């Protein structure tokens, strides 16, 4: 015989599509009516209109209920009231039900997430390009990856990844947007304030802190942080907030660019943070013959890595992504994993893993 207890037990296997938590604990199941083998459910969705995900969600509910013997199932969907949303946000913030999420503990000392800040002394050398493609390469390997676009004024990640979707907000809690398997948050997702001056000083720090603490991050292996150019306020804030973060320095081959990058690197060293290494971007032109033409000189990044006592991780050639390879061709900075660039970013991901998680695993075994 079907009972409410059995139905609830079965519904625990169904996850809410955005939060990836079971719908019973999230209080989405509002009422259950059972008449012999017919089940009537009232469900309260977090917000209206996630239609593409809703179809799978409905199907999953029907599947688990059929498996316990239901013959007909009717579902009625409502949207949570503001009060219900606020209660849910509180519950999520307190992580009372967040068994496989991290919530506020992202900043916790015991968090298993490796933070990687991508910086450079100079603007326009490819920090965002490197951050985005490293994130996608790590996600392609199955790692759980988050990306914070910490360039609050000059954000570029949403456009680079072709993200047009806005994040889901539950009361004051924001859910990151997922693209190519990477969970992303950027100032570009929010309405811009009318007075840009507001965003100087304390507001800037607050926004950044909100990105870490006000966003409902799932459990992550890697959190990549795309820094604005230079060694300014945001870089310092990040370094204070995340003393354990590791750094990747991006530079172009020109000696001047690498000298400036050295400043970012020496700041990391002064702050006793670990440098993962240097990525040289726009290193060469790949000729049709397969030869590499080093138009900006050859040894800049090697010298930079030597002077910082670290490794030159990869050299990325000049070249635009091949847009045809992705279904959405507006992700103008994401290289296909099988392109020359994609393979180089895959190699970068491997090196990053070896220098971070792998060493952690080895330490755990010892
Ligand atoms: N290897 C490359 N080949 C060709 N174009 C590239 C390459 N790397 C980056 N670019 C392009 O150069 C421009 C600057 O790159 P990007 O925005 O990644 O630099 P950035 O260091 O993040 O800049 P900012 O300091 O403004 O944040 C972008 O238009 C990007 O698409
Ligand atoms: Mg940038």
UniProtKB/TrEMBL annotation:
Superkingdom to which the source organism belongs: Bacteria
Gene3D superfamilies: Fe-S cluster assembly (FSCA) (3.30.300.130), P-loop containing nucleotide triphosphate hydrolases (3.40.50.300)
Domain MIP18 family-like: 6-67
InterPro entries given in the database record: FSCA_dom_sf, MIP18-like, Mrp-like_CS, Mrp/NBP35_ATP-bd, NUBPL-like, P-loop_NTPase, YlxH/NBP35
Record keyword Metal-binding present: yes
Source organism per UniProt: Scopulibacillus cellulosilyticus
Assembly, per entry: Homodimer.
Name of the protein: Iron-sulfur cluster carrier protein
Pfam family, one: ParA
Chain positions recorded as ATP binding sites: 121-128
Keyword vocabulary terms for this entry: ATP-binding, Hydrolase, Iron, Iron-sulfur, Metal-binding, Nucleotide-binding
Keyword Chaperone part of the UniProt annotation: no
Family: Belongs to the Mrp/NBP35 ATP-binding proteins family. In the C-terminal section; belongs to the Mrp/NBP35 ATP-binding proteins family.
Protein task: Binds and transfers iron-sulfur (Fe-S) clusters to target apoproteins. Can hydrolyze ATP.
């Amino acid at each position: 015989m079907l009972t409410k207890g059995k139905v609830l037990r079965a519904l625990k296997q169904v996850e809410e599509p955005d939060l990836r938590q079971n719908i019973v604990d999230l209080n989405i199941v509002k009422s259950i009516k059972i008449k012999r083998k017919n089940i009537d459910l009232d469900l309260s969705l977090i917000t209206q209109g996630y239609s593409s995900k809703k179809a799978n969600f409905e199907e999953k509910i029907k599947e688990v209920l059929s498996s316990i013997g239901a013959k007909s199932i009717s579902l009625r969907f409502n949207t949570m009231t503001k009060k219900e949303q606020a209660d849910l946000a509180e519950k999520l913030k307190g992580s009372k039900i967040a068994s496989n999420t991290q919530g506020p503990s992202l900043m916790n000392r015991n968090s298993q997430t490796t933070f990687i800040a991508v910086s450079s002394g100079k603007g326009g050398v490819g920090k965002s390009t490197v951050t985005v493609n490293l994130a996608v390469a790590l996600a392609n390997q199955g790692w759980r990856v988050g990306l914070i676009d910490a360039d609050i004024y000059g954000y570029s990640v949403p456009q680079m990844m072709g993200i047009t979707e806005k994040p889901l907000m539950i009361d004051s809690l924001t859910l990151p947007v997922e693209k190519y398997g990477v969970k992303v948050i950027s100032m570009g997702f929010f309405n811009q304030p009318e007075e840009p001056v507001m965003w100087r000083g304390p507001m800037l720090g607050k926004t950044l802190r909100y990105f870490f603490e006000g966003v409902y991050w799932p459990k992550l292996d890697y959190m990549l942080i795309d820094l604005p150019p230079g060694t300014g306020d945001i870089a310092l804030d990040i370094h204070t907030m995340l003393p354990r973060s590791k750094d990747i320095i991006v530079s172009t081959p020109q000696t001047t660019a690498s000298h400036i990058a050295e400043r970012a690197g020496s700041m990391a060293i002064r702050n006793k943070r670990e440098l993962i290494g240097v990525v040289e971007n726009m290193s060469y032109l790949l000729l049709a013959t397969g030869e590499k033409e080093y138009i900006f000189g050859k040894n800049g990044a090697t010298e930079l890595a030597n002077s910082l006592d670290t490794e030159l991780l990869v050299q990325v050639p000049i070249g635009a992504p091949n847009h045809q390879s992705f279904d959405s061709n507006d992700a103008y900075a994401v290289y296909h994993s099988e392109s020359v660039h994609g393979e180089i970013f895959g190699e970068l991901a491997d090196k990053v893993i070896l220098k971070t998680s792998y060493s952690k695993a080895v330490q755990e075994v010892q």
